[in-house]
Amino acid sequence: MVGIILLTHGSLGMELLKTSEMIIGKQNNVDFLSVQSGASLSDLAKDLDNLINKYKKDGVLILTDMFGGSPSNIAMAYFDKEHVDVVTGVNLPMLIKTFSMRNDVENAQNLGRIASQTGKESIILAGDLMSK
Amino acid sequence: MNRKLIFRVDDRLIHGQVIEGWIKYFKIREIIIVSDRVCKDDLQRMIYSSILPEDCILQFYSIENFINNFAEIYSAKRSILILFESVRDLYNVREVLNDEIIINVGCVASREHKIEITDTVFLDKDELILLSKLREKYDIQVKKLPWETAVEIKNFLSLIGE
Question: At the fourth CATH level, which superfamily is domain B5-160?
Answer without folding.
Answer: Phosphotransferase system, sorbose subfamily IIB component (3.40.35.10)
